[in-house]
Amino acid sequence: MYVTRPLSLFKKNPEAVSALPPEGPNSGYLVIADKEWEDEARRFWGLFKDNRIRDFPFPQNRILAVEYTQSNGQSTSTYRDKVLFVPVIGQPLSANRYYAIRAQGKHKGKACTCSTEEDMGICCICTYIKDVKPQPFDLTNIYQRMQIRRRSSGFVARSVVENGFPPLFLRRKGWRLHISSSQQIPLQEANGVDFALRNRHPDFEFPGSDKRRSSAVVAGRWYCPFMFIKEDDTTPKDQMEKSPFYEITLERYWEQIYVCDQNSHSNPENTVTMNTSLQIEVVRLFGEEVMAEDIRVGDGWARFRTRKSGAERNVGLSSVVLDSMRAEAKRGGWVEMKEKQVRIERADEFKGNGGWSRYGSYVLVERFVLRRIDGSLVLAHDFRHSHQVQSKWE
Q1: Are 271 and 347 in contact (CB under 8 A)?
Q2: For the ranges 18-27, 119-128, 232-241, 347-356, which has the lowest average pLDDT?
Q3: d(CA 157, CA 85)
Q4: Cβ atoms within 10 A of the Cβ of 152, count?
Q5: What Pfam families does the record point to (predicted)?
Q6: Residue 302 — very low, low, confident or very high, per pLDDT cuts 50/70/90?
Q7: What is the C-alpha separation between 135 and 228, in angstroms, rounded?
């Protein structure tokens, strides 16, 4: 999962690019071309915006155009390819390593992939580099990772693997980079975990008779590039057009797990004994709970399925996303167990004055919510803290 940083930060503090990913190897940084940076990126005494990217790091809230001009005698030809550059996960921005995702044409949404010596073509007695077509993103494919370097007044890409060759438009020396005006991706500030909110419980002062849960507190926010998510049988092109990034929020709230009325409870000593089962981990797709038999994990993906009114829906999460959620839940105190159902047994005595009419017991829930860039809900993953239970008398 990625947190965001404004591009202006790195202009004021260049050393910030060396910061390690904030939450371990399954995290990274996304850079936002913010208003402060745009106001400074002007030319001709500030009269015109300068859409050229001259230095690292590259922003992710804009589609960028790779331009290369080639002279042919008395004429010149300019080549232009639109790309979304996404920093390689687990790397500091100073590494200048990116996934280069095609942002136009029939290969839109696919990752540029380096060819190898085995892909070399032969013409007469000479060999030449033969580009491979962009391919669906594969986190484990190191040939999809590009090392970008400065060259003259522009850039050049190299493979992170010794025998790899980036596609021609990236391996040309001195290509320039411009912000494409066709699309601005609405990324907002996302700083990961808000430790001040995470380290204290959500407010427990709410009317239990009216609500099954307390109001949720958002204690964390991240973004996830679309390549780490698979929706149904959507093609990479369609998915990138629909939502190039997904927002992930961490919500914390109290959820009711047991309730009883005084007139239905026959204990004269004002003691309520609770014995109930609790599912400690729940996944919902588009609001529908996913059954255990509809969860499959393997090949670097966790796949979830629901069937509602005969219609089947499928969503896949890259294992790095699911692992990040689990790791963050554990940092917050969630205890993973072999059995997904646990028994909660306790006896609570009413010690107030004037009697009681209703008793409710609540468990602390941490929910990771995955939404498209337009705010529409895709998935919710609940982690219930079975050791964090509170009671409410009314």
Answers
A1: yes
A2: 119-128
A3: 12
A4: 10
A5: DUF1262
A6: very high
A7: 14
Per 3-state DSSP, the chain is made up of helix, strand and coil in percentages (nearest 5) of 15, 50, 35
| Residue type present at position 134 | P
- Cβ neighbors of 72 (< 8 A, separation 6 or more) are none
Mean pLDDT of the chain: 92
Confidence of residue 336 (pLDDT cuts 50, 70, 90): very high
Q: 316: closest CA among 330, 329, 300, 340? A: 300
Q: Are strands 28-32 and 2-6 parallel, antiparallel or unpaired?
A: parallel
Residue keyed to tokens 């990961």: 192
3-state secondary structure 312-373: EEEEEEEHHHHHHHHHHHHHCCCCCCCCCEEEEEEEEECCCCCCCCEEEEEEEEEEEEEEEC
Band the pLDDT of 208: cuts 50, 70, 90: low
H or E element that contains 8: helix 7-12
Token readout for 305 is: 């399925």
Pick the CATH number of 2-184 from 1.10.3470, 3.30.70, 3.40.50, 2.80.10: 2.80.10
Collapsing DSSP states into helix, strand and coil, what is residue 2?
strand
CB 86 within 8 A of CB 1: no
Alpha-carbon span 318 to 323, nearest angstrom: 9
* Mean pLDDT to the nearest integer, 171-193: 93
Give the start-to-end residue ranges of the domains of the chain.
2-184, 192-393
* Token output for 335: 């205890």
Cα–Cα distance list, 110 to 27, 33, 227, 393 (Å): 21, 23, 9, 56
